[in-house]
Write a sequence for this structure.
């Protein structure tokens, strides 16, 4: 059905009684129908057609309204979907930003003032490794390591620099790792006092790096048990050295094991006395070999110096600066012997 262009409610019935509609009245007039009746018949016909047009118009208006409402509903749903999608993308971006730069979004506590305790700021290279859950040497948290972190840096930590590896080859490494590797001391080579000094600082750094509480507790108790172990109070310095070697080896092994298991990882805090005794034996024999090598080296040096001093004097090997004078002296000695 074609659409109605004009509103039929605004239509006005023609004046069928006028002269211009005489021809329309003529077919209707006869002996039984006069002019007035013919006019009324025409009006009735027009009103019937106009009423039908009004009904069609109203239906058309209703359909148009429903279509507009349907389109508006679809547009609103699409707009809501787009807004939801945009909100989700923005939320994802915010979460990634918070995760990447979490320290920037730490809430400010208005009533919390500046702490009087000194702030522990380890090398950024060490903190990044700690933040990833990797093994980090305790040296970074000693006084020397913290002082190294305070040194003025002319190169950004993330910048890549050429570094020489232990095997003689070269490779591109981060500036922070290249800088730290030159000074870092392995755990087993730390003085026991510096080991005790670094442990609480390391625990604080683990908490700052959002390590799980059970891991932080385990490491704290592990170091505490080493520091109160009977080996600590022994006169033998190798006993304390054994504790340091045990700590370094077992902590490294624990970090390696963490990357290979999924169900759970063993607890470090309980000291394996049998393994510690084995470690002590190894430390003793390593020290014994080192002492023997140093003694042998000194003996070889001493023997070499002694052989040089005991070399037999041979006048024939001497360089004679004045041959004639030496010959004359030889003649005098010969005459003197003959006279006797």
């Amino acid at each position: 059905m074609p659409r109605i262009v004009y509103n039929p409610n605004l239509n006005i019935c023609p004046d069928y009684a006028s002269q211009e509609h005489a021809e329309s009245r003529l077919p209707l007039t006869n002996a039984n129908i006069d002019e007035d009746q013919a006019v009324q018949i025409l009006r009735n016909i027009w009103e019937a057609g106009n009423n039908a047009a009004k009904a069609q118009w109203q239906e058309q208006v209703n359909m148009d309204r429903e279509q507009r409402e349907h389109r508006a509903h679809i547009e609103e749903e699409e707009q809501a979907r787009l807004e939801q999608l945009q909100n989700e993308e923005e939320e994802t971006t915010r979460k990634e930003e918070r995760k990447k730069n979490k320290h920037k979004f730490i809430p400010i506590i208005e009533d919390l003032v500046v702490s009087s305790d000194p702030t522990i700021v380890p090398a950024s290279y060490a903190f990044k490794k700690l933040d990833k859950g990797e093994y980090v040497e305790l040296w970074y948290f000693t006084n020397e390591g913290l002082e190294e972190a305070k040194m003025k840096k002319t190169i950004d930590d993330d910048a890549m620099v050429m570094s020489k590896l232990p095997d003689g080859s070269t490779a591109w490494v981060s500036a922070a790792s290249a800088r730290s590797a030159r000074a870092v001391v392995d755990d087993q080579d730390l003085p026991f006092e510096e080991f005790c000094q670094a442990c609480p600082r390391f625990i604080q750094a683990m908490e700052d790096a959002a390590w799980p509480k059970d891991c932080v507790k385990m490491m704290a108790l592990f170091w505490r048990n080493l520091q109160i172990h009977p080996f600590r109070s022994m006169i033998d310095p190798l006993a304390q050295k054994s504790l340091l070697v045990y700590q370094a080896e077992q902590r490294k092994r624990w970090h390696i094991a963490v990357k290979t298991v999924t169900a759970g990882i063993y607890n470090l805090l309980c000291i394996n006395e049998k393994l510690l005794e084995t470690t002590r034996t190894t430390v003793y024999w390593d020290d014994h070999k080192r002492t023997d090598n140093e003694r042998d080296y000194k003996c070889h040096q001493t023997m070499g110096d002694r052989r040089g001093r005991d070399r037999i004097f041979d006048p024939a090997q001497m360089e004679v600066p004045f041959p004639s004078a030496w010959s004359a002296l030889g003649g005098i000695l010969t005459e003197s012997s003959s006279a006797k």
The chain is about 60% helix and 5% strand. The mean pLDDT is 83.
